[in-house]
Amino acid sequence: MGKDEEATGAPADPIDQGELGSHQSSKGANNDAPPPPFPENVEGLVEKDEGELIDFKTLHWLQGGIVLVAETVSLGILSLPSVLATVGLVPGIILICTVSALATYSGLLLAEFRKQYPFVQNFGDAVELIGKPIGMGSVFREVFGWAQTILQIFLIGGHILMWTICMNTLTNGTTCTVVWAAVGMLVFWVFNVPRTLKWTSWMSAASCISIIIAVFITVIAVAIEKPIGNGPIDVFKSLGFSPAFLAVTNIAGAFSSHSIFFSVIAEFKNPDDWPKALAFLQITDTTLYIIAAVVIYVYVGPDVPSPALSAAGSATVRKAIWGVAIPTIAIAAVIYAHVASQYIFTRIFGNTKHVVRRTRLSTIWWLLITLGVWGLGMVIAESIPIFNNLLGLVSAAFASWFSFGLPGIFWLWMHYGNWFTNLKQCCRFAATSLLLVVGIVLCVLGLWVSIESIANGGAGSKPWTCESNADRQSTRDDGGNHRKFNSWRATRCKSHSADEPSKRSLNPTTEAVDCGITSELSFSGLGQSLIFLSFVHHSTSLHTSIMQSLALFLAGAGVANAYTIAVAERFMYKNIDPIVVPGKYTSHMHSFFGSDAVTVNTTTSKDLQAGCSTAENPNDFSSYWVPTLFVRNESGATPVPFSRFSAYYVSIENAEVAIPQDYKAVAGKSSATKQADVEPLAGIEWFCENGPAKADGADKAAFPTKTCGTHLQTLLLFHDCVNEKTLESTYSGTHNWVSWGVPANRCPVGMKRMPQLRFSIRYDLRRLLPNGWTGAPPLELACGSSYCTHGDFINGWLPEAAENMLKSNSKRDFKGVDGPNGKYNAGSVCGAKNAKDADPKNGTSDYEKSRKILGLRSVTQAVRNLARRRKTRRGVAGY
């Protein structure tokens, strides 16, 4: 096909495609045979009176370049500052430029291949040519054609999740997440109604503007506020293979959008203009990447989070960035949906007039296919608990080949026999071989770690849940004012190696909170990388999975604090406490999680192991309980729903023994009414996720005085030293040592270190307090004010699982605890929804009744009295 024909013909060239390979015998570049003649019996293809002929060749090179920028540059740009923090300023810039050059070269190779074979519309067509000489053409076409489509549908699902996070963040999660997913699916589908990319190119312009503004808002915010700190900047850093490789994968993901290149080239008015569009893309994205990475790294410092959005000033600024970024969230997915739908449409209608004409049938089918693609993306994303890990697996298997491996193979195939004919060819052979090696390495290691992550369970999300997912990526902050705290903590934890316990701080509160809290950050990285990945660029699913999992595999790099998590659902409210008031129904109201066998008389682990547990880990039959939190008003008190209850077991690398059977403990003081009464070693805090931060000097154990951006959260630490015989316990480092100094385990004589339990509880106030609050919130715990926060625990772990917990005793971050009942993420053996009160005839779940039993006034009367007192003073926080 000549240049003029290519510039004016239909993109799918169904006539030529129907004869795909018939004029290509064995080799590529040297076969100059012309395409076959136009078939005489193509069904209606040239009948002028049956549908308007669609002009697919509508893209000017600048329009095409804008489409490419919209597809490639997204919020993933904000993950690059952490790369510079890892490898150093100068090496990071060099890496960005190097990977940009490789991505540019691979894009040119794809254009060279399509110029030689202009009927190629997708990777299936291209790889079919290579497979034909060995009789595998049709197989290759099916595998790679559908692989491209599957990848794009999964990426569409990722964008739908990104959209739901965005909307939940902007609206504080007041609408069901599934509703936002459905709204996004339908709105984005409307953008796919046009059959060509002409209209998408104009939308892509809005996408480009939005991401540029979002990036510069972030850059300006960190430059002005320096929200985390500005520690020393490393111009160069000495590091090993693992962090260097992780940095490369991070950057490679930011340049990977090649799966759409063939389809975009097919819609150029003049495909020879492709190098201009590619240059526009690479100059734009490389410039933005370097500016954002350098400025944010310089102003935030070596502890810059990834992505850097969480470093941007206040929650209001972060919301502004999300709002501005909406077009880029949508349009990149629209382009993927267009390419995927076009492939499916062509496979269905083949060499018929409907491929190139706007008939009634083709219009209906196009609408149905695009809707089906969006619907399938949404269903996959919402239905698969391990969607994140599965997306990483699909991306590792295919995206690495589309962006690096296959372009190299195409060149080698086209120039077979002419690899070393001159110096230029030798240089191109070397560059092409490097592309192929990069593709293989990314694919093999990416598959390995993705499969390992799935095998180990990874962290899953609940399918089809209305629960807000905005808080999942925000756990990197673990609360609004924790950003500065995390930076300080990261430095502190690095300086106190787990291998040198005698040199660590003797303040167990700061050690446990400052270092132990890192577990939640790490968990959000490995197990929830798509929620995070939803926040990061679609194409970073590959590098996110590789980065977070290879950190475990290659070097154990990162946090030196081993931990595991037991997530459990609440199954009852009740006025009992078998530890503090055993045998009596005279306790304040508690919320119970874990084994439903707990009663006022429970004393042993075996008692609990006979029940039904709501814990996700089938080997955990422990009982966890905390005083119930209520929203109060003149009509009474309403329990605040839980967003998530997590029992973290941290500092496992320091543990000498497993948590003993029958062990029980209480952390915190139910009698506390002010900060001075709070047990300092319990690390009790109340704070808002995503801000606003508390004022400097505010009590840590006090409720926030302003509306929370997402969830209200509290933290609580338990003892980590235990006497295995008496089951007495205490916090490490608290003994009044005399002459012999501090023992290595920092426990009193006769005690040994065990994994330290930490409660992390998130409450969802957005429906009960839709208008928020300013000043003292209308909240109370069943025990009184926020200062009386406490937690109770009776160990119910199966003995084998409790011992297996110690296998996390390394510098790896998260490790699931398996046991006789199965893998750690297998779910409750009996089904959490089947858990119920084991003693329903006694005690009460009615808050007013429990107050009467304790001789307290009704909530209604208490609220009225409080209202009268507020006329003269402020800040009463409970009873």
UniProtKB/TrEMBL annotation:
The chain crosses the membrane at residues 61-83, 89-111, 143-165, 171-191, 203-224, 244-266, 278-300, 320-345, 365-387, 393-414, 426-449. It is found in: Membrane. Residues 58-451 form the Amino acid transporter transmembrane domain. Residues 1-43, 465-485, 825-849 are annotated as: Disordered. Residues 469-481, 834-849 have a biased composition (Basic and acidic residues). Keywords: Membrane, Transmembrane, Transmembrane helix. One of its GO terms (cellular component) is membrane. Signal peptide: none annotated. The keyword Membrane applies. InterPro entries: AA_transpt_TM (IPR013057), DUF1996 (IPR018535). Residues 577-797 form the DUF1996 domain. It comes from the Eukaryota. This is Amino acid transporter transmembrane domain-containing protein. It comes from Verticillium longisporum.
